[in-house]
UniProtKB/TrEMBL annotation, chain A:
<dbReference type="GO" id="GO:0005615">
    <property type="term" value="C:extracellular space"/>
</dbReference>
<dbReference type="GO" id="GO:0030154">
    <property type="term" value="P:cell differentiation"/>
</dbReference>
<dbReference type="GO" id="GO:0010646">
    <property type="term" value="P:regulation of cell communication"/>
</dbReference>
<keyword id="KW-0325">Glycoprotein</keyword>
<keyword id="KW-0732">Signal</keyword>
<dbReference type="GO" id="GO:0008083">
    <property type="term" value="F:growth factor activity"/>
</dbReference>
<dbReference type="GO" id="GO:0023051">
    <property type="term" value="P:regulation of signaling"/>
</dbReference>
<dbReference type="InterPro" id="IPR009079">
    <property type="entry name" value="4_helix_cytokine-like_core"/>
</dbReference>
<dbReference type="GO" id="GO:0005146">
    <property type="term" value="F:leukemia inhibitory factor receptor binding"/>
</dbReference>
UniProtKB/TrEMBL annotation, chain B:
<protein>
    <submittedName>
        <fullName>Oncostatin-M-specific receptor subunit beta isoform X2</fullName>
    </submittedName>
</protein>
<dbReference type="InterPro" id="IPR003961">
    <property type="entry name" value="FN3_dom"/>
</dbReference>
<keyword id="KW-0325">Glycoprotein</keyword>
<keyword id="KW-1133">Transmembrane helix</keyword>
<feature type="domain" description="Fibronectin type-III">
    <location>
        <begin position="623"/>
        <end position="734"/>
    </location>
</feature>
<keyword id="KW-0675">Receptor</keyword>
<keyword id="KW-1015">Disulfide bond</keyword>
<dbReference type="InterPro" id="IPR013783">
    <property type="entry name" value="Ig-like_fold"/>
</dbReference>
<feature type="domain" description="Fibronectin type-III">
    <location>
        <begin position="332"/>
        <end position="426"/>
    </location>
</feature>
């Protein structure tokens, strides 16, 4: 459990810089319209209830991390193409995805060992491959804005 | 049935030409109306593709013209008409494209076409055919309510081009505002759901595109946007050229210009392709700015290259044609050698990569010294060559380099090949520039010789030493030789007052320089000439002089570079015989520093005679400090100010005089002074002393007992000294001097008396009031403390020396004693206190004395009731024997003293000062015992201490450390 907490703290600490790095790399109008373009108003983001039982929270955390891992993978791929020179952003995205993979494994392990939960139904974000560039930029920004907000709550809940 | 099937086509083939012929005959033109097959759209390119055919075409080929019309929104709104001519073959499907400036998703377009035969082989068709029917061109886009669609999406365009952005509003959406990066952009409403924004001359923002985003005022969703990928304009390659070094490879190079790559796979960097037309070969370059083209055909001499660069938006080409032999860029020479022939010559050899000895090469040879090219020469050579450098400087490092090119068809120089070398040393070529300073000291000449270091070009090597030969003119055979090791630039000689000739040479490893000669006459260093003042400028001094004789060999001007320092740093300048003036310049010259120049005339005999002395400043400055003024003859009405002069070398300018400022209230200025009233009603008088040698000033007409302030400051041509604080002085009273005359002697007299008294004070003291010893302060007390033997204490009352006299008169009354108490012990009363030894020798008690010093009994003194009268003691039982036990003694003492104190008016508050007689042998217990018969010789006055009235009892009761006892011995005593 301590590993999960550490990983959450790590993600919570890096979420802000990642968000800033992302919207800065997209160019104007993103940095000056963060509220409009990157507001955390994703409707399909998995919910999290900080007051729930540990088991509930772990299940919800698993869903969130699974959702984020997949979405951030897409964002990373898109940014490699769109902003090939934004190396700092790439490294932050990669680091975040790496931590999430470890976290996902640890959460599942905990659920399995303690609560005997071997399977959790997860949801993923919408497919953005057909979206145009601006939409991809915007959706990525919204995802990171939401992630920054949610991870703070999640980290505090554990 | 089969027959009819065969007949029908045959019938048509016959009838149709007939029909055409019939139309011509009847005058009704035959119309070939094009038939639109398909109209398709390429959204990304905003392009409409039209495909049509010309039915009923009877000829195999017919040149035709077509006219295509495009309408927007409705058929009547024609926005484009274009004529298109082509040769039409029978059953051919024709294609035509049109690019819309507006994204096709936003507006419906209509298209139609008509045709006309335009072939010379056939009778001209006078008019267009009928139009085909309108075909609608549209992209079905559904816009959800509260949604905004922006077209085109991710469009690639070139910087500087124009683009139209189209917005499609969903239901309930209005007041849409858009931004291009940070800048707002505005459009025009096409209809209720469509608006267009025209962007002209778009600029490049980033390789990752330019963001456009729009948001409606009432939008509930996040903003919508699109990205324009604006590419830099592809530039034409510059300075395209090809050359060969080895006739095997052609290296072509060019300046590629800006990279037009964009991200998101919109556009890669432009590529470069080389095409050679004679060989027909084409190669794609791996590099942006060069390509190596292999020469495969040795016989091919002429090459025609086309360099094409291309990106998604544009293609550009440049072309060169050349003969291979005219584009030869030779490799750098190799095997370069350099051999020094002597100190001034060196031979360079080198070889070239060449196709043979028949080819003539042009080579450029350069000689460098300290990065400066000092020699350059072009030579024609074959495969190997050599070049001789002459007029070189000995002992000098050089760098020789060479490069070559094809002499017949010069294209480019090869790279340089270079080699460094040094020439050997040679003997110094120039005589030293020497000078001397002569001063007389103890009947001899102290000659300091100076010389300037030879220039590198003169030294021809490292100077090792300087040789000096001093030749006595009177005794030429007696020449003295001196050697001064380099890098010294001078030496000092002590010579007698004879005439001398001094020869100085510089030596290096290869030889000796020409000698420099100076002659010294008998009177060298004794010349006295007038000193002239000169005015310098910031650049230096102009010095001129009058020649002394007409056959001068030359002149020398010398001066000290640091005139203020002890270290002179003599500088000199040699001048030719016909010179009578010179400009002396130096970076070391400073403003406010006096420089002294001496001009010497050199005779044919090399003797230098002092002509003139000149002194001056490059810039005179105001004095930096005022003199220290001393006031003399100070009276009530006047005083004299005097001050020392300045050392001339430390003057910042020639002092022209002094100004004395005198400030006071209600003062009358001397007529020679200048009066100025100040704001505080005081008066300032200014007196100017125009003689710089005058160093005193008398201030007169002063008021007694008045305050005056003065300041003395020098002035020069550059101004006067600093405005320092005025010195204040108050004139004395008129009678003060009289008083002084009386008081001073009186004071002196009194002082003398006091000194005399002090000198004789011991005598007076002894005579008038000798000190009474204080036994309490004897060091013996410490012994008492250690021995704790109070038997040794003798009460002073038992030891009054006067009793001795009484002993001689046993019957006499004792009332005259100072302490008149009855003796308690006969031994005590009859024995002498000091000088008389006891009968039983050393075992007897030692007659030390104990005194109470009532002189210090303050209460007694104050009351006057006691004085020296020890009244209270008379009644005390304190006349204790020497063997009185300690406790008794203590008690007695306590009682005795306390009683006496109790009877004193001062009682408890009084102090008793107890004088103590010192022990005979301080700290020596054994001696105390053995030498007890001679206590008087050891007696002395010790310091006195104040004992509070209560203290004795306390001290005695607590310890024996503080008692009025004298230790007489140990044990039985």
């Amino acid at each position: 459990m301590s590993q999960i907490k550490n990983q959450l703290a790590q993600l919570n600490g890096s979420a802000g810089p990642l968000f800033i790095s992302y919207y800065t790399a997209q160019g104007e109008p993103f940095p000056n319209n963060v509220d409009k373009l990157c507001g955390p108003n994703m409707t399909d983001f998995p919910p999290f209830h900080p007051n729930g039982t540990e088991k509930t929270k772990l299940v919800e955390l698993y869903r969130i991390v699974a959702y984020l891992s997949a979405s951030l993978g897409n964002v990373t791929r898109d940014q490699r193409i769109l902003n090939p020179n934004a190396l700092s952003l790439h490294s932050k995205l990669n680091a975040t995805v790496d931590i999430m993979r470890g976290l996902l494994s640890n959460v599942l392990c905990r659920l399995c060992n303690k609560y005997h939960v071997g399977h959790v139904d997860v949801t993923y974000g919408p497919d953005t491959s057909s979206k145009d560039v601006f939409q991809k930029k915007k959706l990525g920004c919204q995802l990171l804005g939401t992630y920054k907000q949610v991870i703070s709550v999640v980290a505090q809940a554990f | 049935m089969a027959f009819s099937a065969v007949l029908h086509p045959a019938f048509l083939l016959v009838v149709l030409p007939l029909k055409a012929s019939l139309s011509e005959v009847l005058g009704e033109p035959f119309q070939l109306i094009p038939e639109i097959l398909t109209v398709s759209i390429q959204s990304k390119l905003q392009q409409v593709n039209l495909q049509w055919t010309v039915p009923n075409l009877t000829h195999q080929e017919l040149k035709m013209g077509f006219q295509i019309e495009i309408s927007r929104m409705n058929a009547s709104n024609i926005i484009w008409v274009e004529d298109y001519s082509t040769t039409v073959k029978r059953n051919q499907v024709l294609h035509w494209n049109w690019k819309s400036e507006i994204p096709l998703e936003c507006v419906t377009h209509f298209i139609r076409i008509r045709a006309m035969v335009d072939d010379a082989n056939y009778p001209p068709q006078n008019s267009w055919s009928n139009w085909s029917s309108w075909k609608e061109v549209s992209v079905q886009v559904s816009v959800a309510p509260n949604t905004l669609l922006i077209f085109p999406k991710s469009k690639l365009l070139e910087e500087g081009s124009n683009v139209t952005i189209c917005l499609l509003y969903g239901q309930y959406l209005y007041n849409v505002s858009c931004m291009l990066q940070k800048e707002p952009i505005h459009g025009e409403q096409l209809d209720s759901h469509v608006s267009l924004i025209k962007l002209n001359n778009v600029v490049f923002h980033s390789h990752s595109g330019t963001n456009i985003y729009c948001q409606a005022m009432n939008a509930t969703k996040t903003p919508f946007g699109t990205v324009l990928f604006v590419s830099k304009v592809l530039e034409e390659p510059k300075n395209f050229s090809c050359e060969t070094q080895d006739f095997k490879t052609l290296k072509c190079s060019w300046e590629p210009g800006v990279d037009t790559a964009l991200t998101w796979s919109q556009q890669d960097s432009q590529n470069y392709t080389l095409y050679e037309s004679f060989s027909g070969r084409s190669e794609l370059s791996d590099h942006r700015n060069s390509h190596n083209w292999k020469i495969t055909e040795e016989s091919q001499e002429t090459y025609n290259f086309t360099l094409t660069t291309e990106n998604n938006l544009r293609k550009r080409s440049v072309n060169i044609i050349f003969n291979l032999t005219h584009r030869v860029h030779l490799k750098a020479p190799h095997d370069v050698t350099l051999e020094t022939v002597d100190a001034k010559k060196a031979n360079m050899t080198w070889k070239m990569h060449s196709r043979g000895d028949n080819y003539i090469l042009l080579c450029q040879v350069e000689l460098q010294h300290e990065t400066e090219v000092i020699h350059e020469c072009n030579v024609s050579v074959h495969m190997s060559a050599s070049y001789l450098f002459s007029d070189l400087e000995p002992d000098t490092e050089y760098k020789a380099r060479v490069r070559c090119a094809d002499a017949n068809h010069f294209w480019k120089w090869s790279d340089w090949a270079q080699k460094a070398f040094s020439t050997p040393e040679a003997a110094p070529s120039q005589a030293l520039d020497v000078w001397r300073q002569v001063r007389s000291e103890n009947g001899s000449h102290v000659v300091t010789l100076f010389w300037k270091p030879l220039l590198k070009s003169q030294a021809n090597g490292k100077i090792v030493s300087y040789n000096i030969v001093v030749e006595n003119q009177d005794r030429p055979s007696e020449a003295e030789h001196y050697s001064v090791q380099a890098p010294a630039l001078g030496t000092q000689l002590s010579l007698d007052m004879c005439s001398y000739k001094i020869h100085i040479t510089a030596n290096n490893s290869m030889g000796v320089s020409p000698e420099s000669v100076m002659a010294l006459s008998n009177d060298s260093g004794h010349e006295e000439v007038h000193e002239k003042r000169i005015k310098g400028t910031k650049d230096g001094f102009h010095i001129s002089w009058e020649p002394l004789s007409g056959d001068a060999l030359g002149y020398v001007v010398d001066w000290c570079a640091h005139s203020r320092d002890q270290h002179c740093d003599l500088k000199w300048k040699n001048l030719g015989p016909n010179t009578t003036s010179t400009n002396i310049t130096s970076d070391a010259f400073k403003p406010g520093v006096r420089y002294n120049f001496r001009i010497f005339e050199k005779s044919v005999q090399q003797n230098a005679q002092l002509l003139e002395k000149q002194t001056g400043y490059t810039q005179e400055l105001a004095p930096l400090e005022n003199p220290k003024v001393i006031i003399n003859n100070f009276t009530s009405n006047s005083f004299i100010l005097s001050w020392p002069g300045y050392d001339s070398d430390f003057q910042s300018a020639f002092i022209e005089g002094y100004r004395v400022y005198l400030k006071s209230k209600e003062m009358q200025c001397h007529p020679k002074g200048k009066r100025t009233s100040l704001s505080d009603n005081s008066v300032l008088c200014e007196y100017e002393i125009k003689d710089p040698e005058q160093k005193s000033f008398t201030v007169e007409n002063l008021q007694p007992e008045s305050l005056y302030e003065f300041l003395v400051t020098p002035y020069t041509s550059a101004g006067q000294g600093p405005n320092e604080t005025f010195t204040k002085v108050t004139t004395p009273d008129e009678n003060s001097h009289m008083l002084l005359k009386i008081i001073l002697p009186m004071t002196l007299c009194v002082l003398l008396i006091v000194i005399a008294c002090y000198w004789k004070s011991q005598w007076v003291k002894e005579k008038c009031y000798p000190d009474i010893p204080n036994p309490y302060k004897s060091s013996i007390l410490s012994l008492i403390k250690s021995k704790k033997n109070p038997h040794l204490i003798m009460n002073v009352k038992d030891c009054i020396p006067d009793v001795l006299e009484v002993i001689n008169k046993v019957e006499g009354p004792k009332t005259q004693c100072i302490v008149s108490g009855k003796p308690h012990n006969e031994d005590v009363s009859i024995k002498p206190p000091s000088s008389v030894p006891t009968e039983d020798g050393s075992s007897g008690p030692v007659p030390f004395m104990f005194f109470e010093n009532f002189t210090y009994d303050q209460s007694a003194f104050d009351s006057g009731s006691h004085g020296l009268n020890p009244g209270p003691l008379k009644d005390t039982p304190g006349q204790l024997g020497l063997l009185t036990p300690p406790d008794k003694l203590l008690n007695v003492l306590e009682k005795d003293y306390m009683k006496s104190l109790a009877e004193s008016p001062t009682e408890e508050t009084s102090l008793i000062y107890v004088s103590q007689l010192a022990s005979p042998m301080c700290g020596d217990k054994d001696s105390l015992v053995t030498n007890s018969p001679k206590p008087v010789h050891c007696s002395g006055y010790k310091r006195q201490m104040a004992v509070p009235g209560r203290l004795p009892s306390l001290a005695l009761s607590e310890s024996n450390s503080l008692t009025s006892m004298i230790l007489l011995g140990q044990g039985e005593q």
